[in-house]
Amino acid sequence: MAIVLQKGQKTDITKTNPGIRSVIIGMGWNSGSVEIDIDAAAFALGANGKVETDNDFVFYNNSNWNNGAIIHTRNQNSSNGDREQLKIEISKIPVKVTKVAFTCTIYDFEKRAQSFGQVKNAYIRVVNGETNVEIARYNLDNNLSVETAVVVGELYRHNSEWKFNPIGSGYKGGLNALCSDFGVTVDEKPVPPKPVQ
To answer: Is the pTM of this model over 0.85?
Structure first.
């Protein structure tokens, strides 16, 4: 049975699941009758908390990182409730990467005047990629209001093992704010168009 985590309550992933090679990070939410376009992404970070290159930002237009170490599978709307998923091949993550941060941002939030205050029942879950068994889940409390981006959780390396840390920290400024914080170059040009689903 999956562990339901509280904010900041870290849990082991690899030590208690010996031989695990991959995990699926599933994220879901509900915006009721309001159509809100939310995108999941991942940032592969070094010890300084920054990406080494802009390519270390995995999102809908850069969906396969480091030969499949992180794969963004785009929108799911699957029977398990996940809206978006990222697949992580643990053994393929380079030693220089000490943390993978998972985020959600609202697409075109300024034009649509939207924020995470309109989003309910958001969660992130970690699933064993071989057995499809859920290992841990974090349900975000509904205390976000004007934020347009959220760092939902992170996988991080502790010695030779991987652990999961639920974070749930909101940002104003959407994707650009996250990119700046994690060291991704932010251009003034528009964000590339989203692929047709």
So the answer is: yes
